[in-house]
């Protein structure tokens, strides 16, 4: 039979869907992610014991006193195991997936019950959904939606759907046909027959189906954890891959408690919602002779009151806790570079990956960032980084081990460089195994090792090299079978064999902490079958350097020696399961100053260097011109880095110059001299200090987009009025440049009558420029240099060969009279202060991107992307 390329067809279909329907997948991801976040905010937002009490009240309402008490004990145990957040994340995922599944499954089952053709069409589809290995659902889920909650929810919905549909159909079909016929005989409509006869009688079966939906949804938590869905699934997955028996037991107990609670509650819900269930419950309660109080169940109103009261208390405590968190955030240290920005890290459970990832988690948190961390297999990890769900990962072995992943996703990734290398791949035996010193020595010794080489994850590149090249090169094919497992399983087998003094050969690599723990031999590779050593790289998604320029810069310079890395790995091993970050903190205490070396703050290692006048308060003012906003918030950040205190006020030019002259303000950075602000300077110059120009010359100009051909100077505008609809888009009519344009420029170049200058506002002019550029339409606008528009758009300044606009001005820093006496150090900095047109334009663009109210943070982002600017503009110790 010819080979059917079914897999290739599926790959092609997936590629087409990714290329053409991304917007649908993004919308689904946004909806499901929003639902999950909302449910998780409710379930995980309250005080754990109060939330446990709410769950207990629900159990009291549905099942009675004893189940309520056991519920509280069970959820309190989850909290005591420090797994509350993970349990609520899992419960949130189950709730979202179950609700969506039920909303789809029940109507589908009703339709199938009432239409045999639909039933026949659905049956094979449900068979495939129910029997297809659940792991398969994760592959398209990750490819379409990235790592995170969404693929887990999608896989759960598909996996849990069949019993909901089948049980609903079965329940309705099992309703006595004579009852249905009797209802129809009395003239009951099909709708009423369904809602008043079939559904009430089928409800116990339907509820059993819903119970199975929820149980199957919960059974998917571990698989969801493999796709980065978080919660208990991630904990169980981490325990499996790292062979952490204690963590596996704790996480397993939490899953069991959730499963029992959901099973018992959904089962008991039938007694509350179906007539048959209520009748059976009443019969049991009436027949009870002893311990009648254990059968007592409060009414719905009483239970609802209890839930609402507890929820209000939990919400109040949560608000209070949020306030204290905000207060703590307000007490930001000098190292708070990140300003709370979220950075998502991912890692493969390899030791150097764990060590470097948790090291950077700790460093970033010390620098004021918020971090998320996800353990994934190599495939989902690379896919997640490529999509931007994960910002970066530190364990890319290139050019060999992860070559396939790099080749597939390289267009969507940035290689931030190698931080360790060269590495080596090897087969290794314990030192007590005599006569086996090289790969060549393995030939003919298969029986000694039971014909097995203990490998790691099948997806690892070294496994492919071992199977395709190493075994073949040394003639070991057929004699040895490479056993794929996991890194933790391989290490467990190595450890067990060493304890028994049994021969074993395993895949290993350098660096690895196992070489420090055990006495091992690396088998020599005289034929070079493993290839040259690799480098361990940090890989981020495209655009990460723009999102977090400071972090990207740190990562590009990141290096660890073999001694540093192995000692860090051993410290994490000693800390034990679930305490990786504690191990990192312990290691950092033994390596003081390393954080400042790996993530230097502006102003030098060890934190920002304080100036001589640190502690003094500088009162700055500005009027809302772009270069004034940019320079003011730039200096606010730099002064605070140097230990000064600052205040910033926005004023119109008149009050600003008055405040400087009266000493109420100390300095402002946007005096346009000798023309624009001549009147203010002439009036107050005896009470002011000119600290010099920091930018110039400025210029006024008419500007067109670069795609407008043939228009390069003001003279070229003559005779081209129709192209621009006879309009020059201006700014406020009161602006001085508008008077110069109307009275001098148009006249000088013979443009009067052909062009009308449209007075508007600066923002309206910029909006018209932006709209025209998007449509590729000709437009001519008034503009000036410096301006951020030149950094954002590709524009042409029209030359002025006749000098109609006049000479350019200089932008000066102007301070109060005795400023130099009060701030001698700052005065020295300001006299040398200069920014180029490119620097100022890029700073203004960054502030525009940040938006109103975030000028200070945006200036900090620009400083992070220009890490030497503080030392250049505000040098200390010189």
UniProtKB/TrEMBL annotation:
<dbReference type="InterPro" id="IPR000515">
    <property type="entry name" value="MetI-like"/>
</dbReference>
<feature type="transmembrane region" description="Helical">
    <location>
        <begin position="201"/>
        <end position="223"/>
    </location>
</feature>
<feature type="domain" description="ABC transmembrane type-1">
    <location>
        <begin position="87"/>
        <end position="266"/>
    </location>
</feature>
<protein>
    <submittedName>
        <fullName>Glycine betaine/proline transport system substrate-binding protein</fullName>
    </submittedName>
</protein>
<feature type="transmembrane region" description="Helical">
    <location>
        <begin position="299"/>
        <end position="321"/>
    </location>
</feature>
<feature type="transmembrane region" description="Helical">
    <location>
        <begin position="90"/>
        <end position="114"/>
    </location>
</feature>
<keyword id="KW-0813">Transport</keyword>
<comment type="similarity">
    <text>In the N-terminal section; belongs to the binding-protein-dependent transport system permease family.</text>
</comment>
<keyword id="KW-0472">Membrane</keyword>
<dbReference type="InterPro" id="IPR007210">
    <property type="entry name" value="ABC_Gly_betaine_transp_sub-bd"/>
</dbReference>
<keyword id="KW-1003">Cell membrane</keyword>
<comment type="similarity">
    <text>Belongs to the binding-protein-dependent transport system permease family.</text>
</comment>
<feature type="transmembrane region" description="Helical">
    <location>
        <begin position="49"/>
        <end position="78"/>
    </location>
</feature>
<feature type="transmembrane region" description="Helical">
    <location>
        <begin position="243"/>
        <end position="262"/>
    </location>
</feature>
<keyword id="KW-1133">Transmembrane helix</keyword>
<dbReference type="Pfam" id="PF00528">
    <property type="entry name" value="BPD_transp_1"/>
</dbReference>
<feature type="transmembrane region" description="Helical">
    <location>
        <begin position="134"/>
        <end position="160"/>
    </location>
</feature>
<keyword id="KW-0812">Transmembrane</keyword>
<dbReference type="Pfam" id="PF04069">
    <property type="entry name" value="OpuAC"/>
</dbReference>
<dbReference type="InterPro" id="IPR035906">
    <property type="entry name" value="MetI-like_sf"/>
</dbReference>
């Amino acid at each position: 039979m010819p080979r059917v390329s079914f897999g290739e067809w599926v790959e092609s279909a997936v590629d087409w869907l990714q290329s053409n329907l991304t917007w649908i997948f993004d919308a689904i991801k946004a909806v499901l992610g929003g639902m999950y976040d909302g449910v998780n905010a409710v379930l995980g937002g309250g005080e754990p014991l109060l939330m446990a009490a709410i769950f207990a009240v629900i159990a009291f309402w549905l099942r009675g006193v004893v189940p309520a008490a056991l519920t509280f004990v069970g959820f309190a145990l989850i909290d005591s195991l420090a797994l509350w957040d993970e349990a609520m994340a899992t419960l949130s995922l189950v709730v979202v997936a179950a609700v969506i599944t039920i909303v789809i499954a029940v109507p589908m089952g009703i339709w199938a019950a009432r239409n045999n053709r639909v039933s026949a069409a659905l049956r094979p589809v449900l068979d495939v959904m129910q029997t297809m290995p659940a792991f398969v659902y994760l592959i398209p889920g990750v490819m379409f939606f990235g790592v995170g909650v969404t693929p887990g929810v999608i896989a759960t919905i598909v996996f849990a759907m069949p019993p909901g549909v089948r049980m609903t159909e079965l329940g309705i079909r099992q309703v006595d046909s004579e009852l249905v016929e009797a209802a129809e005989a009395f003239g009951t409509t099909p709708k009423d027959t369904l809602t008043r006869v079939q559904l009430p009688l089928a409800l116990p079966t339907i509820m059993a189906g819903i119970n199975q939906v929820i149980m199957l949804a919960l059974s998917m938590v571990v698989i969801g954890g493999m796709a980065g869905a978080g919660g208990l699934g991630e904990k169980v997955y981490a325990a499996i891959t790292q062979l952490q028996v204690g963590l596996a037991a704790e996480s397993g107990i939490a899953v069991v408690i959730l499963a029992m609670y959901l099973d018992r509650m959904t089962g008991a819900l039938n007694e509350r919602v179906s007539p048959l269930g209520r009748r059976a419950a009443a019969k049991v309660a009436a027949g009870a002779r002893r311990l009648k109080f254990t059968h007592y169940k409060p009414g719905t109103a009483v239970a609802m009151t209890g839930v609402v009261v507890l929820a209000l208390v939990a919400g109040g405590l949560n608000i209070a806790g949020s306030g204290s968190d905000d207060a703590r955030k307000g007490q930001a240290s000098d190292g708070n570079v990140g300003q709370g920005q979220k950075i998502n890290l991912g890692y493969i459970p390899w030791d150097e990956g764990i060590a470097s990832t948790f090291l950077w988690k700790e460093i970033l948190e010390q620098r004021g960032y918020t971090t998320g961390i996800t353990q994934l297999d190599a495939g989902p990890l690379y896919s997640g980084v490529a999509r931007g769900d994960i910002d970066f990962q530190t364990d890319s072995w290139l050019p060999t081990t992860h070559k396939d992943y790099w080749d597939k996703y390289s267009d969507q990734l940035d290689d931030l460089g190698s931080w360790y290398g060269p590495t080596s791949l090897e087969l290794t035996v314990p030192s007590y195994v005599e006569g086996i010193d090289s790969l060549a020595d393995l030939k003919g010794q298969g029986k000694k090792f039971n014909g097995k080489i203990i490998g790691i994850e099948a997806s690892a590149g070294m496994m492919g090299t071992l199977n395709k090249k190493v075994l073949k090169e040394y003639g070991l094919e057929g004699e040895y079978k490479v056993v794929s497992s996991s890194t933790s399983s391989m290490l467990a087998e190595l450890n067990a064999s060493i304890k028994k003094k049994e021969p074993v050969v395993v895949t290993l690599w350098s660096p690895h902490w196992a070489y420090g723990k055990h006495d091992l031999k690396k088998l020599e590779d005289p034929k070079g079958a493993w290839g040259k050593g690799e480098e361990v790289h940090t890989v981020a998604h495209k655009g990460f350097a723009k999102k977090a320029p400071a972090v990207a810069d740190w990562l590009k310079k990141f290096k660890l020696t073999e001694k540093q890395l192995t000692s860090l790995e051993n410290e994490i091993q000693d800390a034990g399961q679930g305490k990786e970050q504690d191990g990192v903190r312990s290691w950092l205490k033994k390596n003081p100053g390393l954080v400042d070396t790996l993530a230097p703050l502006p102003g030098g290692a060890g934190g920002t260097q304080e100036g001589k006048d640190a502690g003094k308060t500088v009162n700055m003012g500005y009027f809302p011109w772009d270069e004034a906003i940019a320079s003011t918030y730039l200096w606010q950040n730099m002064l605070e880095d140097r230990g000064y205190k600052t205040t910033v006020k926005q004023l119109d030019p008149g009050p600003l110059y008055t405040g400087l002259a009266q000493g109420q303000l100390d300095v402002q950075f946007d005096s346009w001299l000798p023309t624009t602000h001549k009147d203010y300077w002439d009036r107050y110059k005896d009470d002011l200090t000119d600290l010099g120009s920091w930018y110039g010359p400025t210029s006024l100009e008419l500007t067109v987009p670069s795609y407008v051909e043939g228009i390069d100077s003001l003279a070229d505008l003559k005779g081209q009025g129709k192209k621009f609809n006879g309009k020059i888009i201006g700014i406020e009519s009161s602006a001085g440049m508008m008077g110069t344009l109307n009275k001098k420029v148009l006249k000088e170049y013979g443009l009067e009558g052909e062009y009308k200058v449209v007075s508007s506002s600066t923002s309206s002019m910029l909006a018209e420029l932006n709209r025209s550029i998007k449509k590729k339409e000709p437009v001519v606008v008034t503009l000036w240099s410096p301006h951020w528009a030149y950094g954002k758009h590709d524009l042409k300044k029209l030359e002025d060969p006749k000098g109609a606009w006049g000479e350019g001005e200089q932008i000066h820093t102007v301070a109060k009279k005795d400023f130099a006496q009060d701030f001698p150090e700052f005065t020295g900095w300001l006299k040398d202060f200069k920014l180029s047109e490119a620097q100022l334009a890029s700073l203004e663009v960054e502030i525009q991107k940040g938006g109103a109210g975030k000028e200070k943070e945006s200036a900090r982002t620009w400083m992070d992307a220009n890490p030497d600017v503080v030392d250049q503009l505000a040098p200390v110790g010189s």
